[in-house]
Amino acid sequence: MKFRTPVLLALSALLALAGCSTPTATPESSPSASGSASAESTTGTTGTPPTVDRDPQGDLPTITFDGAGIPTMETTPTDPPADISVKTLKAGDGDEVAEGAYVKVNYAGFLWSDGSQFDSSYDRGESTSFSLNQVVDGWKYGLAGTRVGDQVQIVVPPVYGYGDQDSGTIPAGSTLVFVVDVLGSTAITTDALAAATATDAELPAGLTVEGDLGSQPSLVYADGSTAPAESQIIVLSEGAGAEITEADTVFYHMVGGDWGGETEVDWEVGYQQVPSANAIELLGKKVGSRVLLIYPADESNTEAQVLVLDLLASVPA
């Protein structure tokens, strides 16, 4: 059973992230998937969703591309805009990127002040993927509403980027300019959960899982109940979506904790994701399913644990 440690660490990290209000990401993780767990959204600093200008009329820095399609930026003497500004350089005809979607992009980032580049997936020779719920507001709100196939220029004022703190080679108070090719997008919703069919599977004595399909479940323990001595994987409801394979990244909501103890919930915070290689318990399960995982106490004094995972979506690598 490989899921126990990664999934509990993911829950702890996500709950900790929800309590933060200022960004701490490095430039490399500013929107990249490799650092998305620390690329905190700045929504807490602004209170409400920011204005996004999708038809900017002022002068923006000039973006040019070499023969390999790699962008560079020429500065402009005008003052930067106060709002997140999105200029379409090339229009795509794919699906619209939904709020909170999981996206795949190529991008380069520049400083408005001098045009210097601080990060680029083009230079690394590979695209990157991340959730719009895990990045700064300039990305979260700027990319939502674009389409797959779009190439856009996004100007991110400091309040929607890294604010008044340095972040690697990005000085405090910097306006950032990104060039982004939107390569793919997956909307992560609870729609697939409501289409599942309950299995009426037998649960361990003393444990009840309550809650309608498509909504947050809860764990109820009978007084004096004891945890099972063996690991168990129980499909509580079977979804109608695709089967999860070894190549997938899996997206899910989770409720869980120690047997009989306080339950931690991520539904209010946002979905989580894990490579299926770290979640072998989910291989072959269908998107939309609700899966109960039970882990007995072990020799390292870890308490018996219970997790309920609602499988929202999967994306092939």
TrEMBL record:
Stored InterPro entries: PPIase_dom_sf, PPIase_FKBP_dom
Family affiliation: Belongs to the FKBP-type PPIase family.
GO molecular function, one term: peptidyl-prolyl cis-trans isomerase activity
Name the UniProt record assigns to this protein: Peptidyl-prolyl cis-trans isomerase
Annotated region (Disordered), positions in chain: 21-84
Domain of life from the UniProt record: Bacteria
PPIase FKBP-type domain residues: 100-186
Reaction catalysis annotation: [protein]-peptidylproline (omega=180) = [protein]-peptidylproline (omega=0)
EC number(s) given by UniProt: 5.2.1.8
